[in-house]
Amino acid sequence: MSPHFPPSRRKLLQGLGLLTGALALPPVLRGLGSQLTPASSLSPISPLPSPTPIAAAGLNPHRVVLVKTTDRAAGVREAMALLQPPSFRDKRVFIKPNYNTGDPAPAATDPVVLETLVQSVRGAGARQITVGDRSGMANTRSAMTQMQVFALADRYGFDTVVFDDLNREDWQYFDPQGTHWSQGFAIARPVLEAEAIVNACCLKTHRFGGHFTLSLKNTVGMVARYVPGDGHDYMGELHRSAHQRLMIAEVNRAYRPSLVVIDGVDAFVDGGPEQGRRVQTGVILASTDRIAIDAVGIAILRMLGTTPTVARGSIWAQAQIRRAADLGLGAIGPEQVEWVTADRAGAQMVEQIRPFLT
Fold first, then answer.
1. Most exposed of 104, 121, 169, 255 (fewest Cβ within 10 Å)?
2. What DSSP string describes 181-217?
3. Residue 58 pLDDT grade (very low, low, confident, very high; cuts 50, 70, 90)
4. How far apart are CA 180 and CA 13, in angstroms?
5. 3-state SS of the chain: helix, strand, coil percent to 5?
6. pLDDT value at 31 more than 80
7. CA distance 311 to 300
8. Nearest to residue 267, comparing CAs of 254, 280, 283?
9. Kind of pairing, strands 259-271 and 276-280?
10. Domains of the chain
11. Residues 1, 162 contacting (CB under 8 angstroms)
């Protein structure tokens, strides 16, 4: 089932040409056409804007909040309060959880995390909230049902989107130029048309070539496997490619999140993404910087004892991290990361993690 758009909005999206399509979409989408054409015919993607909202507020754009807790609801609320993310007031907000499967956290976003984010974003004055995803290893609708998404939508009145059900016009192509994607890639328009995007992630390793799956990797769930009428298997290309980790970083050029939350109450330190060696970590992380928060997540995995590929070398030389930094998506080294904690327990954990953030 496709997301609901008013008829006038759908007509506008279908009728705009290349120039007007670029102007009608959010600022992060410069260089894109509104008509879905073969990716190879699109113009290059322009550079994304700097994260000015946080800098303008006098805050370090690379700050990472750490809350030491096993209470997911309390942890998410406290992390958001400490972070002070950009305002959600009067905005259309898209929440992108992790529903690769419907298995319990850390395989998928815990229902408590989603419920708390919805409550917090709505309490911050959001005009509309939409939750959507595309599973990689399961039927998306079944996974979302297992994780209580539709039940929560009935309770709180937010919209839901199953990306597998989108029509051709509901996907936005991105040009392959400057990427390792042979034909570019396509991202769900309901995400791109939002005025604020919340990336809700889990803390885990990834045994199918990603090495770790945190906020950068969670963005892959916004990308089509197939676009109706387009026979190219985008996920097949990704997972067969020797450049998989670079490609993961590259899809993140398409948008900039207003908030990233990583549920690290439990973590997979080996295996993943749907099952693995589970460790209770007892932490919630929040940031507006995908690189900084992922680097902290990797440092936690290293501290707990993780896979050789995740543990080897500098975090800042990991392919996902390095490519994202080269694209200007966030922090480029540990000296830029500002830690924010609420209490002694959080501060003590930061001191334990800090030596691994190298």
1. 104
2. -BTBEEEEHHHHT-SEEEEEEEEEEETTTTEE-SHHH
3. low
4. 28
5. 40, 20, 40
6. no
7. 10
8. 280
9. antiparallel
10. 7-356 (3.40.50.11440)
11. yes
SS3 349: helix
Among 137, 166, 134, smallest CA distance to 230 is for: 166
How far from the centroid of its chain's Cα atoms is residue 212's Cα? 13
Q: Is the pLDDT of residue 15 over 70?
A: no
Adjacent-strand bridge partners of 285: 66, 262
Q: Which amino acid is at 54?
A: I
Whether the Cβ atoms of residue 304 and residue 278 lie closer than 8 Å to each other: no
**pLDDT (0 to 100) of residue 280:** 97
Instruction: Identify the helix (H) or strand (E) that includes residue 141.
Output: helix 140-146
User: How far is the C-alpha of 188 from the C-alpha of 172, rounded, in Å?
Assistant: 6
Q: How confident is the model at residue 60 (pLDDT cuts 50, 70, 90)?
A: confident
Q: In angstroms, rounded to a whole number, what is the distance separating the alpha carbons of residues 33 and 20?
A: 8
Integer Cα distance of 141 and 145 in angstroms: 6
Backbone angles phi, psi at 179, to 5 degrees: -125, 175
Residue position matching structure tokens 């408590």: 112
How many angstroms separate the most distant Cα atoms in the chain?
Answer: 57
- CA–CA gap between residue 44 and residue 176 (Å, rounded): 8
pLDDT for res 190:
98
Calculate the average pLDDT of the chain: 87
pLDDT (average), residues 213-229:
98
Angle, vertex CA 132, rays to CA 127 and CA 120, nearest 5:
45
Q: How far apart are CA 229 and CA 244, in angstroms?
A: 25
284 - beta bridge partners? Answer: 67, 263
241-299: pLDDT as tens digits: 999 999 999 999 999 999 999 999 999 999 999 999 999 999 999 999 999 999 999 99
Q: If you average pLDDT over residues 87-97, what whole number do you get?
A: 97
Residue 161 exposed, middle or buried by CB count within 10 Å (0-12, 13-18, 19+): buried
pTM of the model: 0.85
Report whether 28 contacts 49 (CB < 8 A): yes
> For residue 21, what pLDDT is reported?
31
Give dist(CA 72, CA 330) in Å, integer.
Answer: 26
